Amino acid sequence: MKVAILGFGTVGSSVARILCDLKPAGIELTQVLNRGVARKRVDWTPPGTHWTEDFEQVLRSDADVIVELVGGLEPAGTWVRRALEAGKSAVTGNKKLIAEHGVELDRLARANGAHLLYGAAVAGGIPVIPGLRQGLAGDRITRIEGILNGTCNYILSRMEAGAAFSEVLCDAQSLGYAEANPSEDVDGYDARAKLVILSRIALRAGLDVKSVFCRSITQVDAVDLVYARDLGCTIRQIAKAELHPDGVSAMVGPMLVPLRSPLAWSRGTENMVLVSGQYGGDVVFSGHGAGGHPTAVAVVSDLISLAHGSRPVDLPSRATPVSGEFELRHYIRFIVKDAPGIVAEIAGALASEKINIDALFQRPGYDKADLPFVVTVEPCAASSLRRALDRIGSAAWLAQPPLDMPMLGE
Amino acid sequence: MKVAILGFGTVGSSVARILCDLKPAGIELTQVLNRGVARKRVDWTPPGTHWTEDFEQVLRSDADVIVELVGGLEPAGTWVRRALEAGKSAVTGNKKLIAEHGVELDRLARANGAHLLYGAAVAGGIPVIPGLRQGLAGDRITRIEGILNGTCNYILSRMEAGAAFSEVLCDAQSLGYAEANPSEDVDGYDARAKLVILSRIALRAGLDVKSVFCRSITQVDAVDLVYARDLGCTIRQIAKAELHPDGVSAMVGPMLVPLRSPLAWSRGTENMVLVSGQYGGDVVFSGHGAGGHPTAVAVVSDLISLAHGSRPVDLPSRATPVSGEFELRHYIRFIVKDAPGIVAEIAGALASEKINIDALFQRPGYDKADLPFVVTVEPCAASSLRRALDRIGSAAWLAQPPLDMPMLGE
Questions:
Q1: Beta partners for A287?
Q2: What's the pLDDT score for residue A191?
Q3: Are A68 and A79 a contacting pair, CB within 8 Å?
Q4: Using one digit for the tens of pLDDT, what is the confidence trace for A250-263?
Q5: Chain A residue with minimal CA distance to B310?
Q6: In sequence order, what are the residues at sequence separation of 6 or more whose Cβ sits closer than 8 angstroms to the Cβ of residue A189?
Q7: Mean per-residue pLDDT for A4-13?
Q8: Is the minimum CB–CB distance between B253 and chain A shorter than 8 Å?
């Protein structure tokens, strides 16, 4: 099986390195494509490796499989489509492409007797996609909770230890964990694409990517991690999807996670996926979700599967309506200019939506003009809570808009 | 694809139940075999299901796949062999059979154009085998550490909370977690069979089952869990295998696990597998390793793979010598009739094997005639430690033989 790697960056060169080290039976690296390929060229690939900048050359070559690692929707999408149409199989780690066009590309692969594998698109080195497809196809998965973005997990687990958001973000950028523009990570779009892919495979639900609600972790303040700890919790960026008779609830954003939950164990850039099945109960996968080598392991594993003639189990999904509604406990943090009647006003707004207050926490030692306190409420629909908070709206005593976060159970 | 279930106990009836509920495309339950089948017969399987006590009938039938869930080496082994020889594929959860004869049976399947799948043989509902085969084939796995026996984990996690071994064992038996004769579980033979299967798939190392050293958890005393806690650890039955240039080190037995290690997170009957790869680093799988439904999920997933024409990646293994040698820190617990010179004698025995003492712990409040204390030593080979302890041998001051346990790192 002749393999062409498109994109010789961190992951692409790791794939080549592992292929050269492990020499898996029946797999031969024959082509490498990259822009400005001259400066990318290395001397340790097999002697016959053809280096090129021209996709047409790859397409005309005898490569059986393309490994697409350029990322983004274009030209990656066109390249994968044209390769599949030419009867070549494709392996990709492109979560954005698979989240938005995976169903169409799967269909195209089938129609052309080719195969499309994307184990590297979610949680890199953790075999979540093969585990779900091959190992949990016999269950009815009803819920996914995942830590799918290593950058956010690095930031929040450092903040848990007392660091400030801006400082940690700088560190993450200088360590190469976060982009100069960190929006894809911190605002949840990266995790959302992965959640959409997992929902398709595990819940058999095709979700429209842009309909999945994202909340940024930038709104999380150091004080939230202090209050979370008081509540026996920590804060993680969670991607959550749940199957209901009439659709799927899905959301990405910062949530309170009990310290006893597996989701709280993830440290640094680790990823974790927890799926709950009707028959098998909870299964947890964790490990290194990103980085050149772990992601390359997923790519090489997909190549080995193809070389062994192992075909992925093709689980049909159907387009499914998605809402951001979860019936969960919530944490609401206010920062106020202290004045009489604030709690009464909040309680009234919540009561008008029939939301029960669970507890009220106010730590001593803060400035009265910038006073944080926290209200937790019993399980309620996210939309009712949103309406209640809208009623408080722009009250004069609010020093900044309140932040509400769902609280997950153990 | 017509399916015959052999063995209609807890797992077999769960498999039938899930097949009836989920109705996976292309899978039809046509036969059920059990001894005294009349009393096993249920009314909710598909109308045409044929119930029988006679394996010859199954073999002559048009069933494409047998699901072997009778367990043990015989007649299960003969039935699987004869089915494969007849060109029928086989799905089994029989760890003993696959540990001892898996290589031969895999070969037999290939020779007859049939397939043998056994995702249910290790860690039931956790997709470890598919995860390793499909998702981590592209790594070089060098180490496996697993909690592979739910009964032992239930016992040790209850003991961690203060209960006594004998009491917990009784509870485990009345809850159906442990057999009347618990030796397979507590002495490590069950976990050993699973470790041998995982070593074959992950390390590509064929180990002789009986050559893998097992130590019973029955030697663990309540006091060990107290000292373990002082050391920032807990105790778990761990199945561990490590690849070296000249073979594999493997062992099953109670070990000290740091509280910060994922292995300490497992509670109750949970299973957990941690594999370490040269490229992808550590990956953790956890969930319900046993029980009717979780095990049945693995069986049904294997059936779905077969029905979809998905073939397992066939990773060749080679027969590999195995030793019980690990270069690890060790915990050694003595129970002595207190007398002068004991520590000097122990220190001398350890020094004679060039083993460095790390620390010595002695909690107050114990009877001087039955006094527990603990020595931890720096990393040393298990065989040196064994020789050192043999030197102390049957010293008059020993109230009972010392217990040594490896201490795992974080």
A1: A271, B283
A2: 97
A3: yes
A4: 999 999 999 989 89
A5: A311
A6: A183, A214
A7: 96
A8: no
Nearest to B120 by CA among B136, B135, B98: B98
pLDDT tens digit string along A355-373? 999 999 999 989 999 999 9
Class of the CATH-defined domain A128-289+314-323? alpha beta
Smallest CA–CA distance from A301 into chain B, residue:
B138
The domain defined by A2-117 folds into Rossmann fold (3.40.50)
pLDDT band at A181 (very low <50, low <70, confident <90, very high): confident
What per-residue confidence (pLDDT) applies to B352?
95
For A291, which residue in chain B has the nearest alpha carbon? B280
Contact between chains at A280 and B297 (C-beta distance less than 8 A): yes
Query: Is B194 annotated in the active site?
Result: yes
pLDDT in tens, B219-250: 999 999 999 999 999 999 999 999 999 999 99
Distance of CA A53 to the CA centre of its chain: 31
Q: Identify all chain B residues contacting A134, using CB atoms and an 8 Å cutoff.
A: 119, 127, 130, 133-134, 301, 305, 310
Is the Cα dihedral B29, B34, B37, B42 positive or negative?
A: negative
> Encoding tokens for residue A209?
């990517």
Domain ranges of chain A: 2-117, 128-289+314-323, 328-407
A14 touches chain B (CB under 8 A): yes
Mean pLDDT of A260-273: 90
The DSSP H or E segment spanning B353 is none
Chain A residues lying within 8 Å of B297, measured CB to CB: 136, 138-139, 277, 279-280
Burial environment of residue A364 by CB neighbours within 10 A (0 to 12, 13 to 18, 19 or more): exposed
B312: pLDDT strictly greater than 80: no
Residues A106-138: pLDDT tens digits?
999 999 999 999 999 999 889 999 999 999 999
* Predicted complex: ipTM over 0.95: no
pLDDT, average across residues A330-338 = 95
Which one, of B232, B196, B251, B212, lies nearest residue B381 by Cα?
A: B251
CA distance B123 to B272: 8
Measure Cα distances from B269 to A275, B147, B236, B296 in Å: 18, 10, 12, 17
| Site of tokens 């097992």 | B214
What one-character-per-residue DSSP string does A320-356 give? --EE----EEEEEEEEE---TTHHHHHHHHHHHTTPP
Q: Is the dihedral of CA B107, B108, B113, B119 positive or negative?
A: negative
Q: In angstroms, rounded to a whole number, what is the distance separating the alpha carbons of residues B127 and A282?
A: 12
Return the CATH number of the domain spanning residue range A328-407: 3.30.70.260
